[in-house]
Amino acid sequence: MTRRSVIVGTGSALPANRVTNAQLAERVDTSDEWIVERTGIRTRHIAGDGETTATLATEAARKALAAAGISPEQIGLIVLATATPDQTFPASATRVQTALGINDCIAFDVAAVCTGFLYALSVADNMVKGGMADYALVIGSETFSRILDWEDRATCVLFGDGAGALVLQAQDTEDRGILASRLHADGRHNDLLYVDGGVSTTGTVGKLRMKGKEVFRHAVVNLADVLNEVLGVAGHSADEVDWVVPHQANKRILDATAKKLGLPPERVIVTVDQHANTSAASVPLALDTAVRDGRIKQGDLIVLEAMGGGFTWGAAVARF
Ligand code: UT7
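That is the input. Now the predicted structure with oxa(dethia)-CoA docked in place:
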């Protein structure tokens, strides 16, 4: 038997305000037709007053804890992936910790933008396996609406806000839990997807900038590579995978990646139409959606993957 991190509960949270493409077209020079055809996005949720990365993360965490039947005091570790924290410091994870009523546990944020949840999951998995905690909360939460340039139609239509969370439990098991994960970064591509401000440079928060076409090209290649790599490490082939839970940036990226791997589209969880790109929140939001609607069941072999600013990219294989 091996000590592994088993996913025992998932949860998610979305801001109350749901915005359709048609509503966006009232304030930006775009159309429902263009957005659907190029991205597959139909709606996104936008945070309102009082809704922040930490409040959304807390709601998602509460639901994941309830699904797992775990009380907050049992949590020994919180890893929160975000590029849009409530404050520059302290970590938003500590706000979630306090909101959950936990007085002492390990809590920190991880910044790897859209790949943030894969980085957070891998860090938490290794800490759980190493004995630092028996129960961990892994959260992806973002309020990208607050770093969008609402004058730039090429980016502002693509993103949304939200949060997703899961609870990991240390278990002695042969084949359940996180079986393998692989992470990558290549900082040479900083200028293709970045925020044009920062604490130590401009002293401002800045706005998101992206050369979409080039990001798209790299995304399909990097994601197919890392999926093949992580499946190889886990000792599984693509045809054994029950569900792929990808980062939700663009329906065309999901289709192209699945095709490259020879995976039927029916085995890919798609939520980009409903949530748009929620950066680090998109993978756990998609996971929770498919767990709650009954598609992902205990015993299923699932693969999570993401790619984003940095560039960063990564994937994980788990037996649910
Ligand atoms: O999460 C991190 C990873 N991010 C991604 O993976 C994003 C990857 N990139 C993409 O998803 C796609 O490249 C986009 C959706 C961003 C863009 O799609 P595209 O097919 O690459 O379009 P494009 O940027 O080449 O733009 C095509 C045309 C341009 O007009 P011209 O120059 O052909 O006349 C744009 O000005 O579409 C125009 N355009 C728009 N038109 C209506 C750009 N944005 C819009 C818009 N509405 N919102």
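The first strand starts at residue 2 and ends at 13.
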